[in-house]
Amino acid sequence: MRLTSRARDKKVHREASDAVTWFDREAALCEFQDARLGERFRTLLKQIGGDIGQSIPMVCQDWANTKAAYRFFSNERVSEADILSGHFKSTRERIAAAKGPVLVLHDTTEFTYQRERPDLIGMIKRIPKSNSRRLDGKPQTYTTCGILMHSSLAVTLEGLPLGLSAVKFWTRKKFRGVAALRREVNLTRIPIETKESIRWLENLKQSTELFDKPSQCIHIGDREADIYELFCAAQEVGTHFLVRTCVNRLAGDGDHTVATIMDEVEVKGLHRIEVRDSKGNPDQAVLEIRYRKIRILPPIGNQSRYPALTLTVIHADERGAPKNRKKIEWKLLTDLPVQSRGDAIEKLEWYSLRWKIEVFHKILKSGCRAEDSQLRTAQRLTNLISVFCIVSWRIFWMTMLNRSAPNASPEFALTKAEIQLLDRLVKDKNPTSTQRKTLSHYLIKIARLGGYLARANDPPPGNLIMWRGLSRFIDIATGAKL
Prior knowledge:
Elements: H1 5-19, H2 22-28, H3 35-50, H4 56-60, H5 63-74, H6 80-97, E1 102-113, E2 123-133, E3 139-155, E4 161-170, H7 178-182, H8 198-208, E5 217-221, H9 228-237, E6 240-244, E7 250-251, E8 256-257, H10 258-263, E9 269-276, E10 282-296, E11 309-318, E12 329-334, H11 341-352, H12 355-367, H13 378-404, H14 416-425, H15 439-449, H16 463-481
Helix pairs in contact: 2-3, 2-6, 3-13, 6-13, 8-9, 12-13, 13-15, 13-16, 15-16
């Protein structure tokens, strides 16, 4: 039977829509100075995402594509901002579709390398030499080269990563420890604009711009984010923050500190949580919860520049002395309202999701093997790591999607061709079942390709299993297409 012109057009449009894969969507919105650079980036994202963790020659397969990849990463017209611009816009779309608050997790990680010309990359930190000591008994150290990255990851309250909202790379011409600097200057009197800490403010502002409603955004940070200028910046752009505090600031009229005020606050309730000890065994902890709204003063050297802020301090201290692990002592600071024990527990649960950005960095280093690259300059490495960031997010997203939205339609993450291939490739364990095949059903099939056994009592597949399954599935899909 012949198709009419309209039916033929619909068929072509349907097949074209089905051919749009995740790397097409992430690369489509990128803005490069040359359209050919955008096309090369799309090809590289497809190649690297299809053979995760392999070297550039391995994913490119031939000298022509390998040489083109090296030229792309070393091109002066290509930057990490160009590479990630499309992903940031896709993150914005996913944020707009999310319901309720969105948490933006901030953290810094470092990539270390061994090079004959470390000056082409930059210094990063000092590492003790093994079995080598100076005359004063202290261990001898050597300075390694590398790159630092401060990333911001947007996640839902269920822990689903929506994508990166900001990334900042930088290197150091020389390394000087904080202890050495403190002997020379008072760090609290140095303007934030001249410190590396300015990255926290820059990422906060860039991330907030992705939100239609800045009040929907809550920035989460560890003790490194305990920066007074950051609190003021959040107030200026109309967003919120929840950080773990480590500075005992002046409070009230300046005659008290936060610690002395919180010592007088009574326990408002208890909260039991599940934890694991140092050996990985399950354990329980009972937390004593205290909270209070306090007027907090800026540092003495900046009191003329920044106003006093009224914030809520939350303390969660574990009752008793646990065995085989450290005692839990959380001190959080937020501008969010906390009026009950339930509100305080909610904020503790939100902060507990902060570790997910560390999981993202682990995928970046262990899965994509970002520190195994042999590229020689900081510019080339940052461009490559930017591509790895998109691939790492995809792995993390697929893993968490199986846990946060298992009943969603499979078309939410897979094309029709991929769904049909999985049905033929991985047989159903219960082929006679008439239940609707959900997204989780197909993600489990991908995990089974990576070694997941899918037994009744098995926990959901993790990032490593999903990474292996996705790598194998992409190879098989390529072969099936050919």
